[in-house]
Design a protein that fits this description.
- The chain is α/β, with parallel strands linked by helices.
- It has a single domain, classed as 3-Layer(aba) Sandwich (Rossmann fold), CATH 3.40.50.150.
- A seven-stranded mixed beta sheet has the order 3-2-1-4-5-7-6, with helices on both faces.
- The chain is globular.
């Protein structure tokens, strides 16, 4: 069975897949589980679907009430597929589609903040670690309690030393592992302000 939107305004709409073998579409089970976890936090949220592929995750978020989703991918066929899927689902007006290298995009100065950055790159190339470390180097892409969500094969996982993110939990669904990271809020400054008298 092909890709479909699982919930929300565009529920049941079929999504086009990217031609070729360059992408690994998320399964309906994983997608449903992800949005069950996030549930009430999705409406009015802002997302960046970083290695967007078909756009299935970002489109699901929009269908369920997200305010804005940025889709990015380096593959021209992916970009064309995302645009088609957005138009087909009637969700283009709250979306932005950018063709570009994920690491170059992350290295740029943040032009807005997101509640969620979804990282699901091609497998077994270490790209998820590079992306998460790049995000850790520029954490203001996310709001203060924003989440980075990584979708990988369980064998790809390793613990990373991060300065600005804390790993919250992992959820395994067959050959897919979701790892949730929260942007750590810096501790409040307890510095004593001196009046200058002395």
């Amino acid at each position: 069975m092909g890709l479909r939107v699982a919930g929300g305004l565009a529920r049941g709409r079929k999504l086009k897949s990217v031609p070729g073998e360059s992408t690994r579409p998320v399964t309906d089970m994983v997608k449903q589980a992800l949005f069950n976890i996030l549930a009430a936090d999705v409406p009015d949220s802002a997302w960046w679907d970083l290695f967007a592929g078909t756009g299935a995750i970002g489109i699901e978020a929009l269908s369920r009430g997200a305010a804005f989703v940025r889709f990015s991918d380096l593959n021209r066929l992916s970009i064309e597929t995302i645009r088609w899927n957005l138009n087909h689902c009637g969700l283009s007006e709250r979306a932005e589609v950018r063709r570009g290298d994920a690491f170059a995009l992350l290295a740029a100065s943040p032009d807005r903040q997101f509640d969620y950055v979804y990282i699901a790159p091609p497998q077994y190339q270490g790209l998820w670690q590079r992306a998460l470390l790049a995000l850790d180097a520029s954490p203001t892409w996310l709001v203060e309690d924003g989440w980075a969500i990584v979708q990988i094969h369980p064998r790809e996982y390793l613990s990373l030393a991060l300065r600005h993110f804390v790993e919250l939990e992992q959820r395994k669904y067959g050959s897919t592992l979701l790892v949730f990271y929260e942007r750590a809020v810096p501790p409040p400054s307890n510095a004593v302000v001196h009046s200058g008298r002395g």
